[in-house]
Amino acid sequence: MMEGNMFGNTMWAGHWLWMLVIAIVVVIPAWRICQRTGYPGWMGILILIPIVNLVLLYFIAFSDWPSNRNNDGRS
């Protein structure tokens, strides 16, 4: 059915390359945000998992950041 389609095989490789680029563009800022707030940077990888990414954003937005606890002198 797809013998006449010249994009049949290249579309698949291009799709995965595009998904890798998007993942890098999203994970790097999420990694840095987690580090700056005082959480481990690897938590930024969670931004790639549907639903978990929303939980991560709410967690970072509404939790007390470890970096603020260290700088404010509060315990």
TrEMBL record:
The chain crosses the membrane at residues 12-31, 43-61. The lineage of its organism: Bacteria, Pseudomonadati, Pseudomonadota, Gammaproteobacteria, Pseudomonadales. The keyword Membrane applies. It comes from the Bacteria. Keywords: Membrane, Transmembrane, Transmembrane helix. This is DUF805 domain-containing protein.
